[in-house]
Amino acid sequence: MQGGFPLLAEAQIATEPKEVAELQPWTITATRNEGLAHKAPNATEVIHGAQLSRQAFRTLPQVFQAVPGAMVQETSPGQGSPYIRGFTGFRNLMLVDGVRLNNSVFRSGPNQYWNTIDVLAIDRIEVVKGPKSALYGSDAVGGTAQVFTKNPFTSSRKGMGHFLSRFSSARRSSVGRL
Known about the structure:
- The protein has one domain: Beta Complex (Ferric Hydroxamate Uptake Protein, Chain A, domain 1).
- It has a five-stranded mixed beta sheet with strand order 1-6-7-4-5.
- The termini are far apart.
- 26% of the residues are buried.
- It is globular.
- The chain has 178 residues and is mainly β.
- Helices cover 8% and strands 29% of the residues.
- The chain contains three helices and nine strands.
């Protein structure tokens, strides 16, 4: 007796696919030109504002804990310096809306300039791992992090305020939108 149990199969009726929403491709600045992240010459990570809101990061260095290949050195609460490809401090370049925020003139060791950016004001972060000195100068040996801030005059939420607030004390803290 072959196949003691009959195989039951039922044909499925094909249905027309529903309308597919086409998403805009994410662009990066790894080459100083817009392009697709998977075609960039270096390893690139893009962290979007929705991910920042979901994971409730308090400082910009804490965001780098979610980046593969990066590590954060926190010497005290509120102060941290990311390590990208083994480099920290002025060897990692931070750009905010295209403007260089840290360099070797300000401080040679791990610096606190990463903490001056409010996480609630960030639209997205593009992290390019590896040397980009040819594009950005000698400060971009370990990696480059470009922070794009939110536009305060446009909001996808109608009726919501455009102000971000933060309260913190030794025992409690709160983050929100006014």
